[in-house]
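Consider the tokenized backbone below.
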């Protein structure tokens, strides 16, 4: 899988866009610049957010850690190339719903759903590794 672009409303990212280039990419930014947030976003896009996880002393669950600072609902888009096809992954949160719980995988530029690619299987199918 090759990531072409990502758009995120996630933590400090408010409809932010990242377009990695070919090969190895390195994100260099100051503290609080969003580096870990982009990593958390990609993980959430591929594997979802574990809503059973709870805050504990010294630890914030991802659903709270990455709640958008803008007050908007968590949402994202990843455009990538997989198995020779361009696909678009979409995740969104409905009001009062599961964070990033709505999932769609479409062939880019169409309304055609990518078969057998679900919110639960996305990461493992695309990357070959479990959460």
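A designed sequence for it:
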């Amino acid at each position: 899988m090759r990531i072409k672009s990502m758009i995120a409303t996630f933590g400090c990212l408010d409809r932010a866009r990242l377009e990695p280039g070919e090969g190895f990419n390195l994100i260099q930014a100051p503290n609080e610049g969003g580096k870990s947030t982009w990593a958390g976003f990609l993980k959430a896009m591929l594997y979802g957010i574990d809503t059973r996880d709870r805050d504990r002393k010294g630890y914030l669950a991802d659903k709270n850690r990455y709640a958008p600072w803008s007050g908007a609902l968590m949402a994202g888009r990843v455009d990538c190339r997989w198995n020779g096809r361009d696909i678009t992954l979409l995740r969104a949160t409905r009001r009062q719903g599961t964070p990033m719980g709505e999932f769609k995988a479409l062939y880019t530029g169409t309304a055609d759903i990518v078969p057998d690619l679900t919110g639960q299987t996305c990461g493992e199918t695309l990357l070959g590794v479990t959460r």
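The first helix runs from residue 35 to 47.
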